TrEMBL record:
One of its GO terms (molecular function) is cytosine deaminase activity. The keyword Nucleotide-binding does not apply. NCBIfam families: PRK05985.1. It comes from Aminobacter niigataensis. Transmembrane segments: none annotated. This is Cytosine deaminase. PANTHER family: BLL3847 PROTEIN, CYTOSINE DEAMINASE. Residues 99-385 form the Amidohydrolase domain. SUPFAM superfamilies: Composite domain of metallo-dependent hydrolases, Metallo-dependent hydrolases. Its EC number is 3.5.4.1. It holds the Pfam family Amidohydro_3. Keywords: Hydrolase. It is an enzyme of class 3 (hydrolase).
Length: 396
């Protein structure tokens, strides 16, 4: 039996108390006897549950590889084809690069990641196998969920469907999809194939939907229709969902209502450059919302650092959140919101939950989001995995 006592910590910025952890779980929140436990003095730090990175691309970052001049054109197809070419030219090894990102994410307080992993007829299962190896290697410090993702298209690249099927049979957790109209030009074909894989393997779905305005609304309606018909309520996520930021707010409201009825979740990165789903509207409608960093420091662009506390800041800025309650909700999206979408068992800052805990030096939760202090301590199942912004494990 192992015990750790966190003394003098403030859950969600409340009154100072203790958290007793035994065998990786929180057994008591309240004043506790330290006689049988290792003691860690929190010094009045805020305690929050582990941050959840619910939309990443662990297989494709250039992190740690030096600076590379951006080469991709502005169109989505340009970025996809350039990335496919540069993977081998630059040796963007998915096992090495995903491991580097695990250490980076842990240093920022993330304890679980949903990663979309490219599967196509050029790379075949190389990216999946690399991230799967990282998932196994670091299973004690990070929960990693793998989405089998047809980044280059599904219907337009014969053979991809069979590779997706193979990945799902060999441990991929989620069926991915991408712009059924804009990429494949065959929304019925792609969505039938994706939902068919989900039904065959008993897996949830997460579909990238960059399509804007009416085109995106059309694709979203087809996703909603299949979710209803196949009884997949609570098992489908739509990532990005830029069409919900359309100027036709009446149609966006209708789509939002349908999403709520079918319990389809939305994953956002809160980008500054595109119309985005409005967090407050989704919340009022009862739509589950999670967040992620998307790709970081990759062939698509130079930005990002896998810091989900910073992502909460971006959500607050993008949604004009100013009062404390709204800023706290931005953090909720990056914690409990992601845990709900990933269906993480026994998550949270409560007795009986796994002790995935982050300590932050701040007066309040909104201040922590605004200031983004270094993570004082990060625990995974009660064991320290990062301290003062540095991971306590090596990846090289």
């Amino acid at each position: 039996m192992t015990e750790l006592l966190l003394k003098n910590v403030r859950p969600f910025g409340g009154a100072a108390t203790d958290i007793l952890i035994r065998d990786g779980r929180i057994v008591r929140i309240g004043k506790a006897d330290a006689s049988a436990a290792e003691v860690e003095d929190g010094g009045g730090a805020i305690a929050i549950p582990g941050l959840i990175e619910a939309h990443a691309h662990l297989d494709k970052s250039l992190w740690g590889m030096g600076w590379h001049v951006h080469q991709a054109g502005p169109a989505l197809e340009d970025k996809i084809s350039t990335e496919r070419r540069l993977r081998r030219e630059l040796n963007i090894d998915p096992a090495r690069q995903s491991a580097r990102q695990v250490a980076l994410a842990a240093s920022h307080g993330t304890t679980a990641i949903r990663s979309h992993v490219d599967i196509d007829t050029d790379q075949k299962l190389w990216c999946f196998e690399g991230v799967a190896a990282t998932r196994e290697r670091f299973r004690d410090v990070m929960d990693i969920e793998i989405v089998a993702f047809p980044q280059s298209g599904l219907m337009i690249r014969p053979g991809t469907l069979e590779l997706m099927d193979e990945a799902l049979a060999n441990g991929a957790d989620v069926v991915g999809g991408l712009d059924p109209c804009g990429i494949d030009r065959d929304p019925k074909g792609q969505l039938d194939a994706i939902f068919g894989l989900a039904e065959k393997h008993g897996k949830p779905i997460d579909i990238h939907l960059h399509e804007a305005d009416d085109l995106g609304a059309f694709s979203m309606e087809m996703i909603i229709e299949r979710t209803r018909a196949l009884g997949m309520q609570g098992k489908v996520t739509i990532s990005h969902a830029f069409c919900l930021g359309m100027t036709d707010r009446a149609r966006a409201a209708s789509l939002t209502e349908q999403l709520a009825h079918q319990d389809i979740a939305i994953a956002t990165t809160a980008p500054a450059s595109r119309p985005v789903p409005m967090a407050a509207e989704l919340r009022r409608a009862g739509v589950r919302l999670c967040a992620g960093s998307d790709g970081i420091r990759d062939t698509w662009g130079p930005y990002g650092n896998l810091d989900m506390l910073e992502r909460a800041l971006f959500i607050g800025l993008r949604n004009n959140f100013r009062n404390d309650a709204d800023v706290e909700y931005a953090l909720h999206i990056c914690t409990q919101g992601g845990a709900d979408v990933m269906e993480l068992a026994d998550y949270g800052l409560r007795e009986g939950a796994f002790a995935d805990i982050v300590l932050l030096d701040a007066e309040t939760v909104p201040e922590a989001v605004a200031a983004r202090p270094k993570r004082k301590l990060v625990l995974k199942r009660g064991k320290p995995v990062a301290r003062d912004g540095q991971a306590l494990f090596t990846v090289e």
